[in-house]
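Page header: ASSEMBLY MODEL / three components / 1024 residues total.
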Amino acid sequence: MPAVTVPSDEHNEPERRPPKQRRMPHRLGRWMDARLGTTKFGRSALNKVFPDHWSFILGEVAMYCLVVLILTGVFLTFFFDASTEEVVYEGSYEPLRGVHMTAAYRSVVQLSWDIRAGLVMRQIHHWAALLFAATVVVHLCRVFFTGAFRRPREINWIVGVTLLVLVVANGFTGYSLPDDLLSGTGLHIAYAVILSIPFLGPWMAFLLFGGEFPAEEIISRLYVMHILLIPASIMGLLGAHLAILWRQKHTQFPGARRRENNVVGSYLWPSYAAKSLGLFFFVGAVLAALGGLAQINPVWLYGPFRPDIVTTAAQPDWYVGWLEGALRLFPAWEPSAFGMTLPNAFFPGALLPGVTFGLLYAWPFVEARVTGDRQEHHLLDRARDRPVRTAIGAAVLSFYLVLTLAGGQDIIAQKLNLSISGVVWTLRGLLVVLPLGVALLTHHVCKDLAGAERLEHEKEEAKRLLLGGEGAGPGHHAATTN
Amino acid sequence: MSEQQTPAPSDAPPGEPQQAAQVERERRAELRIAGAFLLTALAATILAVVYWRGGHPQWEGALLAMALAGLGYGFVSFAHHLLPGGEVEQERSPLGGDEEAQEGIVDDIERSAPFGRRKLLTRSLGLGAVALAAAFSFPIRSLGPGPGKQLERTPWRKGIKVVDHNGKAVHADDVPVGALLTVFPEGHTDAADAQTVLVRVEEGQAKPRPGREAWSPEGLLAFSKICTHAGCPVGLYQAETHQLLCPCHQSAFDVLKEAEPVFGPAARALPQLPLEIGPDGLLRASGDFEEPVGPTYWNIGK
Amino acid sequence: MAALAAPLLLAVVATPALVHHSSAEASARSQPVPSGRFLYLRDCGVCHGERGEGTPLGQRLTHIGPAEVDYTLSTGRMPVDEPGAERRRREPRYSRAERTAIVDFMRPFIAPTPDIPHVDVAAGDVAEGAELYLAQCAACHQWAGEGGALLGDIESPPLKDSTPVQIAEAIHSGPLNMPVFVLSDDEVNSIAAYVLYLRHPEDRGGVGLWHFGPLTEGAVAWLFGLGAVVMVCRWIGTRE
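Prediction written out in full:
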């Protein structure tokens, strides 16, 4: 099947052709072109080729979650009251009537019970946040395991990791806004973690919260962060992420006709655009179904935050679960010397995320240094062909999975009828043993798969040689190992 | 550009019967897609009615999902069945490496060289920029008070009455053995750093260190309720094992041994509040906590 | 002690049928209620002593009140099948009349208070109950009454099956590891009203996801949300 080669999107071909019928879009197009010179770019955009593979659209899903978040979030801002002023609830949810609470909490309960379509909007927003973070993580895994971060895409990897940090940060600030019992408890832990930073901690905590916990300013400050600072940063960086992608063109898996110097796929217009638009509606449909049918964050049951009360089974949203789990599993170690103390919460709460994201940022450069591979790559690795990278990635994922489970260790203990101490020690052990086991197993499986494939390939080649045929096809992928 | 349009998936020119089958397939696809779009219209109409009739979260979510799924199915099916598909190939233009342009841009930048040569100018500008940046950073200080002594002190003082959350003074007889009560200093029931758990054990069960025997009259023990690990209220009390448990990270403290941590990540004991029983039988503090309450910070030991 | 225990043990061994099969209220209805003394000596006295003075097998009972006795019997936590067994909630062994008989027999040698309370749920205020429940109970029993894990092999039980009287008895007497809460009758009525509400809270948002909170929400987001999205992606990515 011969491919039709189209010129690259930067082509500048002085092509003249009699004008088509003078329909409205054409007239508008000519009008715009005369003023902005849009036709050239427009054509190259419509003819941009995108490789087709289902895993390449995970990042797109994340982007559409963001769109849903913005649409629903704007609606929520009209009803949320970021104030810690004390009020008495008089709305339609009977078990809270007459209870003292902050205006912030009251506005969320009112939104959920007394504003038409308020609850479904709020729930879609929250589900979208959970799915947003999940798809960003899965997208990052796809990029990692296929080596899509290699030259020339290191900058976009850095932008992407920053986006992940911002997504988690915006999720946490959003979770904290309703001022319910769980969000207040989470904020107190965040305060403790900031306080634990050596030398700067107390000042940082007091300046961020506006005083000793629970200071009154924190909700309105979180609100500004949640709806302005962080979303604006996310949108700016997402723009950069897409612009870089556009400039560098998408990577592709090796295969027939797919080479380092071409892109094989479908045109942006109309095939890819239609599918992408369809994807957007499906993402919206999944979130609407969840938002309408599955209850999330029932703050009216959690009750309003009061600093002296707490509920068991207190957990954060899943994307902070690994930090919560780390705080739970870290042993009771608090070294001190010369009148200075390294607080226990500092290691799992501040150092761990620092190291986690530091290593993520550094990975493309570390790998290039270790392998010595500084070539430009547009063809992706298959995970099995890079057993060491794949093994490291799988091990790291299993490490964070154990931490995330530890974030709900009390519920695990209760539901499985185990003792908490038993669960804690098991998870502590798993945290060390599981990543090692996973790494060895993954490495082994990758080698096996690649080996089996090589064998198959050699057999075929031998058969072809025996039959007097020509060598392997040009597109056939040669297994590589590192 | 039309001559570069995508080839049909099949290379061979379709014969008559094949062409007919293709037309039939496309007609059926068209019907399915139209059905999906009509589903959207129907679901959206019902959604509007549901909203107009007062709204219902489950119906709203389900109908919105149906409407959107109809659109999604329609668009994707459209792309799959009715739009020109097939693979096209596009070359990748090199991203950089144009030596001439690289030389040129260096020349362009160098046009500013006269400024760089004047050391007085660059240095004074550097100083000005640093000073301005420092001046801009000062308003950060307006965000809140400094920690000062606030982390070390709570409103508890000698002689201050022990009250519950509603401000009612606590009588020693109000607290039976095995009881748990959250208490505050009188007049400070909203002081988060003063929250204290009050429990009673059998007299003589607790093992206070020398000098603290008088802190727990009649087996009444009071400890800061803020976990020394990450600040959650230590709200769980296991009366049989005499342990206070924090539900956030499962740190446990032994009430009989001055609330020393016995399990979990907490490394410091919960500070103990010295208590006394007045002649009126009311509970009073006989001082503030001796150690800072709440989570650890770097200079807590000073 | 041994002299006392021996005939009692004999009694237990000799009446296995009674010990193991007299649980249902139905069977109790058809038979005359055995005396409290008989039931106590047969099922409790072996471990707790003839007059609640305690033995190496079971704790002293003289300091606890009727409320705690009634609570442990009505929740099936006592009697246990063997000394030292876990005291978890299960089908109670005695009918209401049998319980009353046992408690009445024990009254002379146990503490007079806290007595079995009278609870009037209808007089309770659900909103006051919610506030009190969250402040006093949620730390152990969880915001939706699902219970939670404690240290050691102990759980704070879910409250879905608790009756108003059991709730009040537990609050007043602090059975097992539960502390005692000093609350007025009105406050207890309100808490009981809210705990009953929590059996079937108004889940306006849809399926309640077992009221475990963010843990299950995260699992649902990954399994259902991401699962559905990945299926859609794979469908979109297929080539016709």
